[in-house]
Amino acid sequence: MSDDLLLRADDGGIATLTLNAPGSLNALSDAMLAALKAEFARLAEDNATRVVILNGAGKAFCAGHDLKEMQAGRAAEDKGRAYFADLFARCAEVMQMIPALPQPVIAEVHGIATAAGCQLVASCDMAVAAEGTRFGVNGVNIGLFCSTPMVALSRNVPRKIAFEMLTTGEFIDTARAADIGLVNRVVPSQTLGAETRALAETVAGKLSAAVKIGKRAFYDQIEMTRAAAYDHAASVMVENMLWRDTEEGIAAFIEKRKPDWS
């Protein structure tokens, strides 16, 4: 990984990735995006990892793009047009890798998650937030509408709330974030790590192959019409039902014993 810019710790089938640039509030710099892309690519081929936790070092989860880097990009002859196009394309690629991963990804959020940092939370499959965390897509406050963060945000929360956040640049607290569905759980800051780990362990304890096929089907069907979604989901369930481990799991439930999964 890029000079420890992104840390990884593995334990019990759970991989914890830590954004490790506390001095910039874990901004999504060019190097950070590259590190995330490389690690997500490794996880996509990692059959041993069942769940991924994504958190941030220091006093914040992620403050979004590195504005100093972005301003430096203006020095190019085209005033930064090519750099900005490439930056937002690379960021979009990284964000889309998260739902495409076979493992569920849980954001463990504290401090702030702003702009592309809020986009990162919205791109994860689940999120646990410490009390007092603030969320915002606040680019409009500096004259930059958060158009790419809007994509993930508007697929997580009701559209009128997303639009309000995008146009006012106002922050929301954890209670509001939970109410609108941006995060799953709000916990005391001192138990954030333990609570996130407990959720990860619950998911990791399920039949991994079933969770993987289910995650893929979940995102596939969201993009379909209702009828097509039912057709697709039914075909996935048929495939799932024919597995040996699923047959064993159902038999174990009926017989009131623990399944002997392979």
Q: What structural keywords apply?
A:
about 260 residues, alpha/beta, Lyase 2-enoyl-coa Hydratase, Chain  A, domain 2, two-stranded parallel ribbon, about 15% strand, globular
Description:
It is a single chain. The strands form two sheets. This protein has a six-stranded mixed β-sheet with strand order 1-2-3-4-6-8, with helices on both faces. A two-stranded parallel ribbon has the order 5-7. The chain folds into two domains: 203 residues, 2-enoyl-CoA Hydratase, Chain A, domain 1, CATH 3.90.226.10; 47 residues, Lyase 2-enoyl-coa Hydratase, Chain  A, domain 2, CATH 1.10.12. It is an alpha/beta fold and 262 residues long. The protein contains eleven helices and eight strands. The radius of gyration is 20 Å and the shape is globular. InterPro entries: ClpP/crotonase-like_dom_sf, Enoyl-CoA_hydra/iso, Enoyl-CoA_hydra_C, Mitochondrial_ECH-domain. GO terms for molecular function: hydro-lyase activity. May play a role in fatty acid biosynthesis and insulin sensitivity. Belongs to the enoyl-CoA hydratase/isomerase family.
